[in-house]
């Protein structure tokens, strides 16, 4: 576990490519452009 003073909240802005509903194991895939390159980020 991460100590309280090391936690960070980040805002991710992009297009939601997919969302897989699996109860507690739901994942979201977001696509955004970073420095001219398309990047997909998966949040478990």
TrEMBL record:
Matching InterPro entries: Ribosomal_bL19, Ribosomal_bL19_sf, Translation_prot_SH3-like_sf
One Gene Ontology cellular component term attached to this UniProt record is: ribonucleoprotein complex
Q: Keywords of this protein's UniProt record, alphabetized?
A: Ribonucleoprotein, Ribosomal protein
Pfam families for the chain: Ribosomal_L19
Q: Which GO terms describe its molecular function?
A: structural constituent of ribosome
Keyword Methyltransferase applies:
no
Determine the domain of life of the protein's source.
Eukaryota
| Annotated GO biological process | translation
Give the family this protein belongs to, as stated in its UniProt record. Belongs to the bacterial ribosomal protein bL19 family.
The protein depicted here goes by the name: 50S ribosomal protein L19
């Amino acid at each position: 576990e991460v100590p309280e003073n090391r936690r960070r909240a980040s805002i991710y802005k992009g297009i939601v490519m997919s969302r897989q509903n699996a109860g507690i194991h739901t994942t979201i895939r977001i696509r955004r452009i970073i420095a001219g390159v398309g990047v997909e980020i998966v949040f478990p």
